[in-house]
TrEMBL record:
Chief location: cytoplasm
Organism domain of life: Eukaryota
Taxonomic placement: Eukaryota, Metazoa, Chordata, Craniata, Vertebrata
GO function term, MF aspect, one: ATP binding
Official protein name in the record: NACHT domain-containing protein
Domain NACHT: 232-366
Keyword NADP: no
Ranges of biased composition (kind: Low complexity): 15-30
Gene Ontology cellular component terms for the protein in this record: cytoplasm
SMART domains linked: FISNA, LRR_CC, LRR_RI, LRR_SD22
Keywords on record: ATP-binding, Cytoplasm, Leucine-rich repeat, Nucleotide-binding, Repeat
Chain spans, region Disordered: 1-39
Amino acid sequence: MSEKRGKMSLSQKQSVRSGSHVSSSVSVKSDWSKDILPPNFSEKKTSSTKRVQYETLDLDAQTHRSYKNFKDNLLQIFQDLERKILTFLKNELQKFKKILQKEDLDYLKDFNKNRCRNKEAALDLTLYFLREMKQDEAADTLEDELFFIHQLKCSLKKKYQCVFEGIAKQGDSTLLKNIYTDLYITQGCSEQVNTEHEVRQIEVASRRHESQEIQVECTNVFEASEEDKQIRTVLTKGVAGIGKSVSVQKFVLDWAEGKENQDISFIFPLPFREMNLKEQEKLSLMDLITQFFPETKGLNITRRNQFKVLFILDGLDEFRLPLNFDGNDVWSDESSPASLDVLLTNLIKGNLLPSALIWITSRPAAASKIPPDCIDRLTEIRGFNDAQKEEYFRKRFTDENQAKEIIDHVKQSKSLFIMCHIPVFCWISATVLQNILEEKRNNVVKNNQADDASKTLQESNTEDTPKTLTQMYTHFLRFQIQQSRRKYDGEHTPDVSWDKDAIFSLGKLAFDQLERNNVIFYDTDLEACGIDVYKASVYSGMCTQIFKEETGIVLGTMYCFVHLSIQEFIAALYAHLFLDINKKCVFDQDSTEQKNKSENMIDLLKTAVDKALESDNGHLDLFLRFLLGLSLQSNQRLLQGLLTQNNRNDQSRKEIVQYIKQKFEANLSPERSINLFYCLNELNDQTLVKDIQTHLSKGSLSSADLSPAQWSALVFVLLTSEEELEEFELQKFKKSDECLIRLSAVIKTSKRALLNDCGLTDKSCPALATVLGSDTNLKELNMNNNNLQDSGVELLCTGLKNINCKLEILSLKNNCITEGGCHVLAAALNSNPSNLTELDLSENKLGNPGMKIILTLFENVQCRLEKLKLNCISITDEGCAALASAFNSNLRELDLSRNQIGDSGVTEISSLLRNSQTLQILRLSDCSISEEGYKALSSALRSNPSHLIELDLTGNDPGPSGVKQLSDLLQDPNCQLKTLRFLGPAADEGCQYVTGIVGKNPLLLRELNLSEHELGDTGVNQISALLQDKHCTLNTLNLCGCSITEKQCLILTSALKSNPSHLRELNLSWNELLGDSGVKNLSDLLMNTQFKLEKLHLCRCSITEKQCLILTSALKSNPSHLRELKLSGNQIKNTGVNHLCDVLKDSRCKLERLSLYGCGITDVSSLTQSLTNTKALQFLKQLDLSDNKIGDSKQKLIDVLRVSNCYLRWS
């Protein structure tokens, strides 16, 4: 191609360039030289005959001199000419070089703006010689930049620099740069988004938290990360009105103005809507480009590889061709004609211009037309976030006060503010509220109501100020009709002059096409609704910013409503008009069964509810909301003159609210259920949140059934409620990071967030940090028992240190936080210390170093921390010493439980207690404190008794006197201690139970007698809980005749095993149901070396010979403490006595009293033998063998005992 171009004449090149005026040759005899040639003497005139001779002679002389001078100066003239030409060419060549080097883009503008023949001649010469030098690439690039690229940029800049909000080419335009607000674009897409109504998608997306997705800047949509492959094709989806086309417009404009993406050579925006008009033609790709962009005629974008070309295919959802990716032929020739479907599928697949970039935009439902393997990046436009909504209004209104007033009003209604996520809805809201303000101020001026002039929209207390979607769209329709009347008919009355027939026809079009899921209409569609296509512009003029007519690039016309939501509103209005005129439900207009039946409002509303619930994709959801909203009298008053006012509307409202609530009883899909909540909101029913909570409690919106997108919809329902959410509990939903991120918007509006025990990790911390750093109601955050670790804490701290964070209570118990996490946490809290009053870091691995870091908070004079919980963080007395020296005067409650601080640590705490004027609650449970520590605490509280009101010492070992020393404090009239806790909840309950029986505090007793009380399982459990606590220091426990069973014996002995060191006497006599397991458990207790029992009474316990063996075996293993054993009334017989003899023979045995009364003994020979020549006889003082039928063997026993001090009882 370059060679061919090099042979083209300049005149041929002239025809290629749009608007070029380059001469066909470069000659010195051109216009350039006419100012330096000698004068034309033949044109001089003579005056008279007489003067001719003199003048001729004079003239000849002058001519001769002039010509001589010309000949003499000719060399100098051409030297000067050469210098000027060279200077000019040198300057132009320098500019051309900079153009090729992308250094002087201003010259592009100057060249085309101040185009003259000399500049064009310089370019022609440059191009000619470059090609003579075989530098075709440089020549082509220079020509492309100066003609094709620049001309395309100029054309696109002119086309895209202005924005026409609402209707293109109608009304006043605004420069895009003055109104454009960045949109939130994310990589990836939402789950199941294609199946839902688009406004529902927006409501979902508006509360989707930004931190969970990868944000993509519009200008960088083709920029790949280092690990990603090169991005060729991008699909951007978003619902109607979200800003897809505006994003394209901004991208193209920035390129055309030389601001962004200058590495792209050509951008070709090809709207699918306009390409529909070429669906029947066969044309090449180059022909398609030329028809859309005539300034590129003659361009061959394939002639060199340096071109970077971008095709923007906008509005896939509006394309009427199928895009048959599988069935179409492969097409790779850019100059050969094919059908439009074939061209586009091959362009997207990369068969045509494989190096070209492709950007496709689409509404979600149509995005699936593109095979996933053809897409390198999928993005989604989410619209405006909260900050961008405000930015839009501030740009829209130059009057700052007016902008603020409108922002404040929109924020008053949560539902309106969330809908402003859609840029088109921002425009609708701005239009309506601006008109209301202007109308109000005009009325104020007219009526001289100066006092009302400064009232805001909220202070006006007017019911006309829109607070719901229906009210907003009704006002919008009124104002647009009024505006068109003023413009075309000169009407300036406050009342609206409705053209009922026109609105009825327009409504029929909206309704019919809504049922068919169509948003683009053509001539046949209008004709079917009784609209004359030749008068379609009248409708567009009447509803200037509601219905629009567009003409394609060559021929053909299409129609649409400005936004899908407006089509749905007009359709709902049509349903009311149809009922008003025909007394029929619009859904039954073709039904022969309902032909003669008259229907009323409630029939229409119920039918609409049923129809909407039958829809699989919810295409009637917003229509239903508008339909229900328009049934309210307050909204119908705005349409007075269009709709007949009906006094039964209030009754209809009550009936339809009840009807909707009945529908919740059915097995509805979550989408349909949630939309019914929206409907109740449009009907001003304030039970919305209660309905949701009831529905949740029934399980119909349980976490197992809802996808993340559906949870986001639930968020919107909660947020649009007028009731404030006091508490958010994640466990009611789904315990996961994903669910927390999805519902973070609800946390933002709640006062307390209970996120404990949900398996959360650092993944959810950025979302929480964003909540904490925003304008939120959150005061309490409970994240106990999760797995945040130091990395999660670090992320969370970005929100904690934000000045907007007003958190008062922070609980991070059991989150695997170490010393490292303490550093970032302390730094964050020190930077924003004035709000936090309670901090819980219990059950983390802080150690003494971590604790010391946390204590640096007390060094900040602004620290307001009142409660500090450091339960089980592995600190020792070293940490206690640091605490004592850094103690803060604001601290009211301190919890150091389950740390091995010991008596030395308590001594440090005691020094703190002696000086503290603020500490009221101190918890030191399970801190390995012994009697010495109790004495230190008692001493400290005696010296400073007037502040501490609660002391918890559960799980410590007070020794014999610890409890008494502290309990005695309660008798001091100066002591403010109201709660002195030694026992855990179960032990405390047992203590109260025993106190109720004996009338005394068992912790202060050494002997507890509960004999003859039927304790039962409950009583035994309570007593056992008390017995196992170390604060219980009983020496004697009498449970004689308490009907203790095997099971209860197990519970009692288990309790005594855990606290064995105090009990010396145990009486279980007259409990005949101990059984084998009971005796076995008791024997296990006796074998415990820490159990130093001295007296054991087991009379009348139905102990058998076998059980006696078990019991004596245990006594033999630990015989040195027992002094008294009573087994009377048990039939242990001779065998049992033989087993006891094994204990007596043990040299460690020091038994003093043995009672075997009525045990069925007949022979004591073995007993006599065991006492003969053993130490046992030295200790035994009393032996009771009464009521046994002993034979001759007793005499030998008497003889043995006679020489000892033992008293033998026989009867």
